[in-house]
Design a protein that fits this description.
398 residues, alpha/beta, Rossmann fold, six-stranded mixed sheet, single chain
Length: 398
């Protein structure tokens, strides 16, 4: 496919507003905060129109003008994006919701929404001449980076907690990446990845510590709007670890309003975290701008076992500006959520996806979501990637 030209202009610090050159490899802003790619949306709108989208392939690169890769030859794609939004009729009836939706990101390449972010990050790295990447990961991001680096011919180094799901560890090896298992958490893996980057001359693409993974994740927001006829849902329930997805969708909604595609109304963004690792929920409840590292984090949902997120202020900003909230669920509840999605809708949701259903039940019981509201649950991956973790838990619930 020949992709339309990117309208990328520069990078911008999300905390200070300082601008940075987008055409040199860079990670954080001078203030040590997250960088966002910015676009000439007026120029983008000349070719990126609702009408034009009707003739474009059903993958996330259909939004090429607002993605950061300038040269189409640098795009590394495995067909990621444009995952379905399913109407959860049976589940909705059981829970008392008339308009319940599930966006199933488990149908992406490598089985999770991480494919989106790593497609853009690896593509941009290739374009900028980077040939050796590293990252820490709790699981699915590792498999995605290894896959896209394999497709791009780029050397990949991955640092993962040794108790990460077996499928993730095995796919990293299968894709030819160099895997280091760490006796600790993703934060410990992050320190080792950063050290390897410095000592070996690698470029670290950790969550929100480089500018481009968020751009792939934001395409979920574009898709939600397009797939729902440019009418956003009332509530989006999102399982949160590093939070790139919620940050990306919030960015997408702003860009689409500037393009004239949607109005100012936004969904209420709901963060769901595990009771055993809930730094964002705690910061939200305390009215803080930043989240303190969560002590002794534990949950079987590997993607939510993130004790500290560099994009904490962006996640909290999206939740508060949308009038949303942040809640916790227990491991038993999220396992039950995965099972209920499977048995009532045929969606084999990862533990994080199950957490969104468990969270919705808490919202309903607290009177925070109405029966007539359109609610979208984000299932971020396939339970196939977690069989060693979920299998015993499922067996107990037969």
């Amino acid at each position: 496919m020949i992709y339309p030209a990117s309208a990328l202009t520069h990078l911008e610090c999300t905390y200070t507003g300082v601008t940075v050159d987008a055409d040199v490899p860079v990670r954080l802003s001078p203030a040590g905060k997250v960088l966002f790619p910015r676009y000439d949306l007026a120029a983008a709108s000349q070719t990126l129109t609702k009408q034009a989208l009707r003739d474009r392939p059903a993958n996330m690169w259909r939004y090429a003008e607002v993605l950061p890769v300038r040269d189409a030859a640098s795009v590394v794609t495995l067909g990621e994006g444009f995952t379905p939004i399913l109407e959860a009729h049976r589940l909705g009836r059981e829970l008392g919701f008339r308009h319940l939706l599930i966006k199933d990101e488990g149908l992406n390449p490598t089985g999770s929404f991480k494919a989106r972010g790593l497609s853009t990050a690896v593509s941009r790295a290739k374009e900028l001449g980077l040939s050796r990447l590293t990252m820490p990961s709790a699981g699915n991001a590792a498999g995605a980076m290894a896959a896209y680096c394999a497709a791009a011919g780029i050397e990949a180094h991955v640092f993962m907690p040794k108790d990460a799901p077996a499928a993730n560890r095995q796919e990293v090896v299968a894709y030819g990446a160099r895997l280091t298992l760490v006796d600790g958490l993703i934060t410990d893996a992050g320190r080792l990845s950063a050290r390897a980057a410095e000592e070996l001359g690698l470029f670290d693409v950790s969550t929100l510590r480089e500018p481009y993974r968020v751009e792939g994740k934001k395409t979920m927001g574009y898709e939600i709007a397009e797939q729902l006829g440019w009418e956003l849902p009332d509530v989006i329930v999102y399982p949160t670890g590093g939070g790139t997805g919620i940050v990306g969708m919030w960015k997408a909604f702003d860009e689409m309003e500037r393009l004239g595609w949607i109005g100012p109304r936004r969904p209420r963004m709901v963060v769901v975290q595990a009771e055993g690792c809930a730094p964002i929920v705690r910061a939200f409840e305390q009215g803080r701008e930043f989240a303190e590292p969560f002590p002794n984090p534990h949950t079987l949902a590997a993607g939510m076992r993130v004790p500290s997120a560099i994009g904490d202020y962006l996640i909290l900003r999206a939740v508060r500006e949308s009038g949303g909230t942040a809640i916790t669920v227990g491991d038993d509840q999220l396992v039950d959520g995965s099972l209920r999605m499977a048995r009532l809708e045929g969606v084999f949701a990862c533990p994080e996806g199950g957490a969104t259903l468990a969270g919705l039940i808490k919202l309903r019981d607290a009177g925070l979501v109405g029966a007539d509201e359109r609610v979208l649950l984000l299932n971020t991956g396939s339970a196939m990637k977690y069989l060693d973790v979920l299998g015993p838990a499922f067996a107990q619930k037969r």
